[in-house]
Amino acid sequence: MTETLLKVHGVETYYGNIRALAGVDVEVRRGEIVSLIGANGAGKSTLMMTICGSPQARTGTVTFDGQEITRLPTHEIARLRIAQSPEGRRIFPRMTVYENLQMGASLDNLKYFDEDVEKIFALFPRLKERKAQRGGTLSGGEQQMLSIGRALMARPKLLLLDEPSLGLAPLIVKQIFDAIRALNKEQGLTVFLVEQNAFAALKLCDRAYVMVNGRVTMSGTGRELLADPEVRAAYLEGGRH
Question: Domain limits at 199?
Answer without folding.
Answer: 1-81+157-241
